[in-house]
Specification:
It is a single chain. The chain is α+β, with helices and mostly antiparallel strands. It has seven helices and 14 strands. Helix content is 32%, strand content 39%.
């Protein structure tokens, strides 16, 4: 009888461990992390909340990329209220890298005219205890959305699963090379580059405009706005499960006759043919 009880306990324990491991790859983890961060801002304020969730290497753009801890430790307090809502999210197959994106509202005053609207993109990375920490945060401004953004949360696609990386340095170099190739081709033809690299579910975030979803709409926007881009890679990272990655850098964009400086963040995903595609791209204007 004792052996039967012990066997049952071990079986239940192994099932619980398997469930815990499986849940690491649930997209709800990164959505929950984002929503907890939002509540933390409400309770503690912007500065203390960012410091509480920051990855040791986490960056914000003020306007250049700077460590979250360095920036928020250098200011007394950031005034105003900030709320946001994740609408687009993914996580890697082993749960060590994820992101969310969605609309935000910042208000530093008491009237409706004091509200600033826009969209944010946040990248999260798991620490040694599998707790997600904020690695990248970037936002854009645009007029208040007339329609609510569509919610798109998906767990990792098993058909895209590849062997875990045994060489993180080589894995990182692949993303650096891919991002640099993308930037080079952008300088030749933005339309041809997006046609080649955009994921079928690709999203595009550009200051002054609502988020744009889908390759056809994105390329139509690029064409209509007469956009040409030159860009430079600053840093990249990749999940150890080899299915999700990020890159960020500087860009110089000519829109019609106007040339301006921007920061960019890209989210890369591996397709079923093991080709890296851009799932999300955001450009944030660098204020002069």
């Amino acid at each position: 009888m004792k052996r039967l009880i012990l066997a049952a306990i071990l079986l239940i324990g192994s099932r619980g461990l398997g469930l815990a491991q499986t849940n690491l790859a649930a997209v709800s983890r990164v959505v929950d992390a984002e929503q907890s961060f939002n509540k933390l801002v409400e309770r503690k304020g912007i500065k203390e909340a960012f410091l509480s969730v920051a990855d040791p290497e986490g960056v914000v753009f003020k306007p250049e990329a700077v460590k979250i801890t360095d920036f928020y430790n250098s200011i007394d307090k950031q005034p105003g209220t900030l709320t946001w809502k994740p609408k687009f999210a993914r996580i890697s197959a082993n749960g060590d890298l994820g992101f969310t994106a969605g609309p935000y509202v910042y208000q530093n005053g008491k009237t409706e005219d004091d509200k600033v609207f826009g969209d944010y993109v946040s990248v999260w990375r798991a620490d040694a205890n599998n707790k997600l920490k904020l690695l990248i945060d970037l936002g854009i401004q645009h007029p208040e959305n007339e329609q609510e953004e569509i919610t798109d949360f998906k767990d990792p696609d098993p058909s895209k699963k590849v062997a875990p990386s045994k060489d993180p340095f080589n894995g990182r170099s692949i993303i650096i090379g891919t991002d640099k190739i993308f930037n080079h081709e952008l300088s030749v033809s933005a339309l041809a580059t997006y046609k080649e690299f955009l994921s079928p579910e690709g999203r595009y975030y550009f200051p002054g405009f609502d988020p744009i979803t889908g390759p056809d709409k994105i390329m139509k926007f690029i064409d209509n706005e007469d956009i040409s881009i030159s860009a430079e890679t600053i840093n990249v990272g990749r999940s150890t499960s080899n299915d999700l990655a990020y890159s960020y850098g500087r860009a110089r964009i000519k829109k019609g006759e106007i040339v301006s400086n921007y920061n960019y963040v890209r989210i890369w995903e591996l397709d079923k043919n093991h080709k890296w595609n851009v799932l999300l791209e955001i450009f944030s204007a660098v204020e002069q």
